[in-house]
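Predict the assembly for these two chains.
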Amino acid sequence: MYKLWQKKLKLKFSNNVFDIVQFGSSTLDDSNPSDIDIAVIYQKIPLKTQLNESQLIKKQLKLLTNLDIHIKSYDLYTLLDPSNFAKQGILFNGISLLDKKPLANKFELYPFLYIEYDLSNLLKKDKVRFHYMLKGKGKFKGLLQKNKGELVKPGLIKINPQNKLVFEKSISLFNINFKMKTIFES
Amino acid sequence: MKEEILIKTTKEYYDSGNDEFEKKRYNSSVVLYFKALIAISDYIIYKKTGETPSSHTNRFRTTEKEFPEIYNLIDKDFQFYQDSYSQVMSKELAEVIKQDVQTLAKKTQIKI
């Protein structure tokens, strides 16, 4: 069990903590993570205090999983600092362990992944199979319904970031060109 | 003999860390301070077990089990050592790790 936000958590932390966020591959459905990335976001307090508190939070989280916990400490300034290469992943994939919602929601932003695909090289029967995969047929639910995704228009679907691998694996089976774009909606 | 080497390397890394700190090369000073921290923890492990860890994995395993206080320090700072290749380290961070070296040195009575 690596989706920590789905657990009942009784974490102890101070008022200096703005949020505790799980991010990285462990937030994705169908992933096989070897560790869990956690970002603890603080109010503006000294780094030493941040690091010490993060160690206490890490200790508590380690009791919930067998996977290694990698914990990073930020305040809102260092989170957004240009040298923080992890910020995009934290903002896009990060899920708050406190709210059980994407971190981006705190900023009234809603992260989605748009997948643009081109079926023009497929045989007609494979195009039909592709559509069944996405939209289902009869009792069989398609990926979109199962994962609360949306067909925006032919050739473009919108999904939750968490479902990236699920769609990527299924679409790849068809040997078609597709590209993904991360979008924040407000 | 091994104890002397570990004390010598601790001092060398710490002094070099200070030199880099003075030059405002904080990535280098973070790496060197962390190495000093590791040299002291190896010294503590050696004094108790007669052996020095062969890898970071080994070191973390031993300290987590036998020396939780040291484990907490090196586990806290290890991420920055790893990140130092690709991220900009701040003066504040270098100071924090420097203080950790001083704390551990004081505990083990190593004069740095």
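The longest helix of chain A spans residues 47-62. The longest strand of chain A covers residues 110-118.
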